Amino acid sequence: GNKQSGDGQAAGPLYLRLQDALRRAIEQRQLKPQDALPPERDLARDFGVSRITVRKALDGLVAEGLLTRRQGAGTFVAGRVEKQFAKLTSFSEDMIARGRAPSSEWLLRARGAVTPDESLTLGLSPGTPVYRFHRIRFADGSPMALEQSTIAGDCLGDVDAVSDSLYAALDAAGNRPVRALQRLRAVLFNREQAGLLQVSAGAPGLFIERRGFLDDGRAVEMTHSWYRGDAYDFVAELNAL
Ligand code: 16G
């Protein structure tokens, strides 16, 4: 059987106690962003718990976004992603540039007719077909953002053209946006959003709306993104007028 730790006093399952200890170490910066965690074997030995318990504790912290797993390299303390606010990059590119693996969970991938609201923001005539993509975006398996994109129907072959990266698919179709308008505001995640992002309801986030255009001015995308407030720093270079 598994060896149990000597102190029987502390309350709760062992994996939760290990999570609390690691969370505290991260909060008090004994473990700093980007630091590698000791191997699971060592954690198991040091805390006097089984490796299954260690694994379960780490899984929970990865889901919370406090830790990230990198294939073949181990488990690390997650750092905030520094995102250039004024660069027309994609989520996938942002993650890959930081050595983190992007992935998505699809919530919706469908063809539909443009809504009045979309037709105004995208400048599309009523009745034009559009593609809709709703996703949870992950980095190294930790949820980072929710995104809802509406793409002008003539910019993509089909919904299936998007395997993971929307911009890669638009690029392949020769329709990657070259210019965008973007606005951002603070939000508190509602219960549903919080559930999808594995944060508590009411946790802070950033809502970003991007409208992307082709060289000739035609609108390609309208994307609503909800980024986790605890996962990002937005940075920009400013020049005097
Ligand atoms: C980013 C963009 C979003 C775009 C997506 C494409 C912001 C605020 N939003 O999240 O508009 O649709 O990237 O990412 O940067 P993908 O190519 O990885 O699907």
Task: Identify the notable features of this structure and list them briefly.
single chain, 241 residues, alpha+beta, Arc Repressor Mutant, subunit A, Chorismate lyase, six-stranded antiparallel β-sheet, two-stranded antiparallel ribbon, 33% strand, disordered N terminus, binds 2-acetamido-2-deoxy-6-O-phosphono-alpha-D-glucopyranose
Can you offer a commentary on this structure?
By secondary structure, this protein is α+β, with helices and mostly antiparallel strands. The chain folds into two domains: 14-77, Winged helix-like DNA-binding domain superfamily/Winged helix DNA-binding domain (Arc Repressor Mutant, subunit A, Orthogonal Bundle), CATH 1.10.10.10; 81-235, Chorismate lyase, CATH 3.40.1410.10. The protein is 26% helix and 33% strand. The protein has seven helices and ten strands. It has helices at 14-27, 40-47, 51-64, 91-96, 116-122, 166-172, 191-197, and strands at residues 67-70, 74-77, 81-84, 102-113, 129-139, 142-152, 179-188, 204-213, 219-228, 232-235. The strands form three sheets. The protein has a six-stranded antiparallel sheet. Strands 1-2 form a two-stranded antiparallel ribbon. Helix 2 (40-47) packs across helix 3 (51-64). It is elongated, with a radius of gyration of 21 Å. The model is unreliable at 1-8 (pLDDT under 50). The structure holds 2-acetamido-2-deoxy-6-O-phosphono-alpha-D-glucopyranose (16G). 2-acetamido-2-deoxy-6-O-phosphono-alpha-D-glucopyranose binds at residues 90-92, 102, 147, 149, 165-168, 208, 210, 221, 223, 225. It comes from Sphingomonas changnyeongensis. This is UTRA domain-containing protein.
